[in-house]
């Protein structure tokens, strides 16, 4: 199908078409996400940053892929967590890999900081948006550098901001208020308290978000580097469904 000189396709890389085969099919465009991930959460604590995401890849409303990791170790100080189209998130992962290879090739002993990766990603997302070929993701970047935590988010339009607690997708409506309230009461929470809070939020999302899953991973970034643990499993208790009207 072609319209206004654009070839409408589900190719996340926006591959160009062969002009010899078609006269009006010039550029590929992703019309909508196919396999998607739901919420990702991020919070800063006294000695670092912690991110969490479940392992489900939904094909529409079908819980199709149940072991997809959406936490990406970018380098020893930075982690990216993405919701939205999983193929586009894989493409972003390859971009990060290329950026690291280029940086290492200079052999100058320096590497990109979490804020550097974040700033670079905002430009990538905005550039794709201006070409009307966005990457269908919202990405949380978390890191720890120079004894300072960093947490920022950028969406498919290139809109970005930083905050001590962040959540994407449905988590922005359900988990974010819980994290914000806990952080305001205890801004210097410990690593254990932060992990317990994220586990609570992931449990609530499992109950409330139809696109969530009870297996999840947690990434912790401190002065010791990046540690990704999991997948861990939530023990749900669906007896609470008896309190919902119409449930039998």
From TrEMBL:
PROSITE patterns given in the database record: PROTEASOME_BETA_1, PROTEASOME_BETA_2
Signal peptide start and end residues: none
The protein's name in its UniProt record: Proteasome subunit beta
Native organism: Amphimedon queenslandica
Pfam family, one: Proteasome
Chief place of localization: cytoplasm
Protein family: Belongs to the peptidase T1B family.
BP term (GO), one: proteolysis involved in protein catabolic process
Subcellular location: Cytoplasm; Nucleus
């Amino acid at each position: 199908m072609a319209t206004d000189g654009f070839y409408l396709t589900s190719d996340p890389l926006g591959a160009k078409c062969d002009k010899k085969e078609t006269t009006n099919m010039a550029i590929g465009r992703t019309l909508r996400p196919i396999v998607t991930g739901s919420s990702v959460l991020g919070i800063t604590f006294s000695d670092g940053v912690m991110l969490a995401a479940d392992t489900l890849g939904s094909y529409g409303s079908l819980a199709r892929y149940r072991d997809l990791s959406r936490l990406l170790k970018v380098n020893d100080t930075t982690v990216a967590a993405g919701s939205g189209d999983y193929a586009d998130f894989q493409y972003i992962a390859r971009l990060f890999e290329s950026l690291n290879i280029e940086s290492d090739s200079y052999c100058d002993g320096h590497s990109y900081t979490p804020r550097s990766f974040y700033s670079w990603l905002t430009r990538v997302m905005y550039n794709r948006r201006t070409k009307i070929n966005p990457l269908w993701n919202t990405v949380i970047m978390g890191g720890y550098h120079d004894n300072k935590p960093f947490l920022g988010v950028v969406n498919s339009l290139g809109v970005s901001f930083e905050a001590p607690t962040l959540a994407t997708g449905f988590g922005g409506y359900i988990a974010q208020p819980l994290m914000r309230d806990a952080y305001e009461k205890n801004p210097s929470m410990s690593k254990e308290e932060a992990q317990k809070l994220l586990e609570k939020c992931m449990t609530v999302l499992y109950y409330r978000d139809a696109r969530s899953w009870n297996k999840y991973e947690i990434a912790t970034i401190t002065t010791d580097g990046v540690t990704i643990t999991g997948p861990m499993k939530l023990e749900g208790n669906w007896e609470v469904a008896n309190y919902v009207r119409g449930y039998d």
